[in-house]
Specification:
The protein is mostly beta strands. It has 4 helices and 82 strands. The N and C termini lie far apart (about 120 Å).
Length: about 625
């Protein structure tokens, strides 16, 4: 026992010496201190020049710069950190003589930290404020402002030839360059990491007002603000070009502008890739297309609660415009995002998707977007999947309140919600316009309270040689001039297992109108409580339309004539269907065939239908058979 006590007191007495005996313990508990601290100040210190202090230092030393204005152009040294008092009081002024700060040393890594300065008034071909050629320092707590690289790129910072800087808690503002007014990153091995940084009010006379990535460059942005930057041609906020890559997480892209071209927020070009998560793209503008983002032959992924709000394009694609080629498509994935109050003067209030865009859109919410045509989306010659999206209160001045499907597109629209969308003028299609040889599949969607204010097809218009499959959808309380829910004109439609209820037409076809030699296959649908103010409470077929209408239920529809169905110069087959409790205030409680219609009736049941004048169940007139 005495021996054990002796050892206990020996160990206790050695504890204060443990850090000395085991240096690794001290390293784990205390930060390493600089070998030498060299102090710089305007008057009274050993050094009056930052460069002189750096030159006298070795790796591991710290240059501590007190408040003051230092008119010089600084070359960094590997392993020597330079620390200012704070950006408000410690200023390095380049006097427009060269880069304010530069490094050409590949050995210079993130342990070389530059912090606590305003870096201003630099002028160079590239990297007016900071030029990093192969060097990879940490830039922290800096204001980089009023620098110029007019003939090339990177007005504020240029990252070149394998440089990989980390930029944290910085403000990069009022810088100017041909490309990348704020920051330019160039070539395959170059990258930049930006954290908690603001890139604001920079200008590019060509492209990439805030940020420019080129030739396989890479950027990673987290909690960054890109605001109020301008580019004359494109990419007001940023341009990502020539196989470059950018990741954005919790980034705000706000109020940037493309003055004469496209991509007010971000331009993505030439086999590049951009991924956005938890990012907001708001109030950007472009004279032409894609005020938020424009994608050309590149990949875009937008997911995880990103928001596009209030972007305005002078032509097409209020928030987003895409394009590709047969050999270089643009894959675009949109998932769990919000698109609100974006505007385009012509096509696609939220987005325009041009040919060779491989689009997948799932779980997105699109509301209150506006355009001349395609209030939310405009699809041109593409075959996308749109699944589980919400389209609410979007508006087109002419046609396609929510979506236009055009020029041979073959989309699949599955399990989406379309509600309170509007086509304001004569074009129609309060929710969807399906046209021009397109072959859409519209399956298991809901269409509620959509309106074609002065046109036809309160929910959908199908026309101009389109061939649409419309199955298992619910159409409720939609309204139009003709065709409260759907208009089919000079096109084909196969419609199965849909439900049409409480749709209204100001004139013809409370639920559905066909015209101009349309061909309609209508099977296993339910039409209930639809109404038209003149003819065809549920359906009106005219203009030599034809079709096969089998196993449908026509229940409690109403009109002046043809409480359920009105045929004008058309020749469908109606078979194995139930007509019950339909009402016409004048003629044909269930059915009217008029103006030479040649209708085949087979195996139908007519129960409790009522007409105010003639034909309680059916009326055939004017050479109809």
């Amino acid at each position: 026992m005495i021996v054990l006590r002796a050892w206990f007191f020996i160990i206790l007495s050695l504890l204060p010496l443990l850090p000395l005996l085991l240096p690794g313990v001290r390293a784990a508990r205390e930060p390493a201190l600089p070998t030498v601290v060299r102090t710089v100040c305007p008057v009274g210190c050993a050094y009056a020049s930052i460069q002189a202090a750096i030159n006298a230092s070795a790796a591991g030393d710290l240059v501590d710069v007190l408040a003051g204005v230092y008119v010089e152009n600084v070359m960094l040294k590997a392993g020597v950190s330079v620390q200012g008092a704070d950006p408000a009081t410690t200023i390095i002024d380049g006097n427009q003589a060269d880069h304010v700060i530069t490094s050409l040393d590949a050995a210079l890594g993130p342990d070389t930290v530059v912090s606590g300065f305003t870096v201003r008034n630099g002028r160079s071909v590239e990297g007016g404020g900071v030029e990093l050629y192969r060097a990879s320092p940490t830039l922290r707590n800096l204001i980089i402002e009023d620098n110029f690289a007019g003939n090339n790129f990177g007005g504020g910072i240029a990252v070149i030839s394998g440089a990989k800087p980390i930029v944290e808690n910085c403000i990069i503002r009022h810088n100017t360059a041909l490309r990348g007014g704020g920051i330019g990153v160039y070539d395959a091995n170059s990258s930049i990491t930006l954290r908690n940084t603001t890139i604001i009010s920079n200008t590019a006379s060509e492209s990439g007002g805030g940020l420019f990535l080129f030739q396989l460059a890479t950027a990673t942005l987290s909690q960054v603000v890109i605001e109020g930057n301008r580019a004359t041609r494109r990419g007001g906020g940023a341009t990502v070009a020539n196989q470059s890559t950018m990741w954005l997480d919790q980034v705000t892209v706000r109020g940037n502008e493309s003055v004469t071209g496209s991509a007010g927020g971000i331009a993505v070009d030439l086999a590049s890739q951009v991924t956005l998560e938890r990012t907001t793209v708001i109030s950007n503008t472009a004279l032409l297309d894609g005020a938020g983002i424009q994608v050309d032959r590149s990949t875009l992924v937008v997911r995880n609660q990103c928001t596009f709000d209030g972007n305005v394009a002078g032509r097409n694609g209020g928030a987003l415009a895409t394009s590709g080629t047969a050999t270089a498509a643009s894959p675009v994935t949109l998932q769990d995002t919000i698109w609100r109050a974006n505007r385009a003067a012509n096509l696609g209030g939220a987005a325009l998707f041009n040919p060779n865009t491989n689009l997948v859109s799932r779980g997105n919410r699109l509301a209150e977007n506006r355009a001349l045509n395609g209030g939310a989306l405009y699809l041109v010659t593409i075959s996308p999947t749109l699944q589980g999206n919400q389209f609410r209160r979007n508006q087109a001045t002419q046609y396609g309140g929510a979506v236009v499907v055009d020029q041979g597109s073959s989309p699949t629209l599955f399990d989406n919600e379309f509600s309170n969308n509007q086509a304001a003028n004569l074009g129609g299609g309060g929710a969807l316009m399906l046209q021009s040889a397109s072959t859409p599949q519209v399956i298991s969607n809901t269409f509620t309270s959509n309106v074609a204010t002065a046109g036809s097809g309160g929910a959908i218009v199908i026309l101009n040689n389109a061939n649409a499959t419309v199955n298992e959808n619910r159409f409720e309380s939609n309204a139009g001039l003709d065709g409260g829910a759907v208009l089919v004109s000079a096109a084909q439609a196969q419609m199965q297992r849909n439900t049409f209820s409480n749709n209204t037409a100001q004139r013809l076809g409370g639920a559905l109108v066909t015209t101009a030699q349309a061909n309609l296959i209508l099977q296993d649908n339910v039409f209930s409580a639809n109404s038209a103010q003149t003819s065809g409470g549920a359906l009106l077929m005219q203009g030599n339309s034809s079709g096969l209408l089998t196993r449908n239920q026509w229940l409690s529809n109403s009109a002046v004539s043809g409480g359920a169905v009105y045929l004008i110069a058309s020749g469908p087959t109606l078979a194995d269907s139930l007509f019950r409790e339909n009402v016409a205030s004048q003629y044909g409680g269930a059915l009217v065939a008029d103006q030479g219609s040649q209708v085949t009736l087979r195996g139908n049941t007519f129960e409790l239908n009522v007409a105010g004048l003639n034909g309680g169940a059916a009326l055939l007139q004017s050479a109809s058979t």
